[in-house]
From TrEMBL:
Pathway: Amino-acid biosynthesis. It comes from the Bacteria. This is Glutamate synthase subunit beta. Residues 23-140 form the Dihydroprymidine dehydrogenase domain. One of its GO terms (biological process) is glutamate biosynthetic process.
């Protein structure tokens, strides 16, 4: 275990963050890994409690608690405390294919269920994870692992997000020949186009893809399955197909004036900003550029927060983010006890930046957009909102009521809709003949088989829009299922029976 009395002697230290007013002038990552000393101090705080909840991913009241890939957290905390970095890295790589992603952008449900967090701030698990893997790359300990034997079996994976990449990594290591099809010009899914550069730098994503390629995985980019290659062709050419196509069809807001120019979906906005950065084109698409504009982001979640941080960097005149829900409490409510994910107010990186830049939290709570108002030239000039009252019944069902005598007009020239996603693209599923259930691919967790023989599904396309760590979990698990399907048995790890 860490230091026996560490949790009593040592305080939690948070990741080092660059000054908000400095970092908004560039697109580099806003946080940095721990120094060795800090990492050891934080590892020492782990209690190695008898029954750790931090490494067991489960759903409690609709939120994730504990680590979905079952990271061996107390074990690597102890190794870090003892300065055994390489051994800590080995333990970490046993359960997580891509800790450099989760160590940067995972919301860390492990920390909400850390036993220290019953009474004190949790062990800084996420940043220890990032520090271990960053150290591994810095020291050249991460090298290509090229499988010694090939099985002769071929697998096509559609989609190169974290689910597709994790499945590809596992199946390649099992000796199968894996080809990943991706419709974008770069691999990575939402890791590449979605999550902004200041949260996860794109060369960190590309470094992993290059490594997977060196290990023998083939990536075919700019190729949309269902259009450039048919489902029939894939089924014919490969022994098995895995659909990891994400859940990227956006939820719309069909209210008065939705057709005006200047109203965009969050993914179009974020993708354009990252493409502009990576391709070094002179200006981003003008109508998707926040420079000098009053920007309103509709949607109170993390995607909306990423749009806030992006708009600030593009030089927006003002930014507001609307949420239909009320502000969260400072402390856990009695209905949200440990080890459930803490539903409490926090100032995330984007909101810290907005507060420093504009002098206040830019989130507006309990507010609903009712109509867009035109500038007379088919462009958006303002939008109209009303306030909401939220009530919760004894079963936890939330309902919203519009408050009479409220109503406000907000000037805006750029509106970003970030109210979630409805599911995967239907046309490719129709071509495969794969069934869906509530807009998700119908494939039972643990089996991952669809109604079509040899066609499997994993990640957001099966689960609904979720987290990177869940996508990695599903990628690893579907790999186990496909390996078993092809070979009769599988030595690939699985946590499902645990
Ligand atoms: C803006 C944003 C920010 C987020 N931030 C975080 C965060 O900070 N932390 C976190 O844990 N989670 C975050 N998430 C959620 C997380 O990114 C997803 O849960 C995760 O990426 C899902 O992985 P996936 O592999 O299932 O799908 P995706 O990452 O969506 O990848 C699917 C891929 O399939 C490709 N594809 C689809 N159809 C085809 C086709 N027909 N042919 C070829 N290719 C195809 C797509 O182009 C895409 O590359 C965020 C989501 C969004 C939208
Ligand atoms: S992957 Fe997420 S939940 Fe798991 S240890 Fe890392 S930060 Fe925690």
């Amino acid at each position: 275990m860490g230091k026996a009395t560490g949790f009593m002697e040592l305080e939690r230290e948070n990741a080092v963050e660059r000054d908000p007013l400095t970092r908004i002038k560039d697109w580099k990552e806003y946080s940095a890994p721990f120094s060795d000393e800090k990492m050891q101090r934080q590892g020492a705080r782990c209690m190695d409690c008898g029954t750790p909840f931090c490494h067991i991913g489960m759903d409690i009241a609709g939120s994730t608690s504990g680590c979905p890939v079952y990271n061996l957290i107390p074990e690597w905390n102890d190794l870090v405390y003892k300065g055994k970095w390489k051994e800590a890295l080995e333990r970490l790589m046993k359960t997580n294919n891509f800790p450099e992603f989760t160590g940067r952008v995972c919301p860390a449900p492990c920390e909400g269920s850390c036993t220290v967090a019953i009474s004190d701030p949790a062990v800084a698990i996420k940043n220890i994870e990032r520090s271990i893997i960053d150290k591994g790359f810095e020291n050249g300990w991460i090298t290509p692992r090229i499988p010694e034997k090939r099985t002769g079996k071929t697998i096509a994976i559609v989609g190169s997000g974290p689910a597709g990449l994790a499945a590809a990594d596992q199946l390649n290591q099992a000796g199968h020949s894996v080809t990943v099809y991706e419709r974008s010009d770069r691999a990575g899914g939402l890791l590449m186009y979605g999550i902004p550069n200041m949260k996860l730098e794109k060369d960190v994503v590309q470094r992993r893809i290059d490594l997977l390629e060196e290990e023998g995985i083939t990536f075919i980019l700019n190729t949309e399955v269902g259009k450039d290659v048919t489902a029939e062709q894939l089924k014919e050419d490969y022994d098995s197909v895995i659909l990891c196509i994400g859940s990227q069809v956006p939820r719309d807001l069909p209210i008065q004036g939705r057709e005006y120019n200047g109203i965009h979906f969050a993914m179009d906005y974020l993708t354009n900003a990252t493409k502009h950065l990576l391709d070094k084109t002179k200006t981003p698409n003008d109508s998707l550029n926040a420079k000098g504009k009053d920007v309103i982001i509709i949607g109170g979640g993390d995607t909306g927060a990423d749009c806030v941080a992006t708009a600030i960097r593009q030089g927006a005149k003002s930014v507001n983010q609307f949420a239909i829900n009320p502000k969260l409490p400072i402390k856990r409510a009695s209905t949200n006890e440990w080890p459930a994910y803490p539903q409490v107010f926090s100032l995330e990186y984007a909101h810290k930046e907005a507060k420093e830049k504009f002098g206040e939290d830019v989130r507006q709570y309990s507010i609903q957009t009712k109509a867009f108002i035109t500038d007379g030239n088919d462009g958006v000039q303002a939008l109209y909102t009303v306030d909401l009252e939220t009530t919760q019944d004894e079963k936890g069902m939330i309902s919203y009521e519009e408050l009479s005598n409220t109503g406000e007009v907000w000037p805006t020239q750029l509106v970003i809709i970030a109210i979630g996603f409805v599911g995967p693209t239907q046309s490719i599923l129709d071509q495969f003949g794969v069934k869906t259930e509530r807009n998700r691919i119908d494939a039972e967790y643990g089996k991952f088989t669809t109604n079509v023989d040899g066609v499997f599904a994993a990640g957001d396309a099966r689960r609904g829009q979720s987290l990177i760590v869940w996508a990695i979990n599903e990628g690893r698990e579907v790999a186990h299922a496909v390996d078993e399907y092809l070979m009769g048995k599988s030595k690939l790890p699985t946590v499902i029976a645990m």
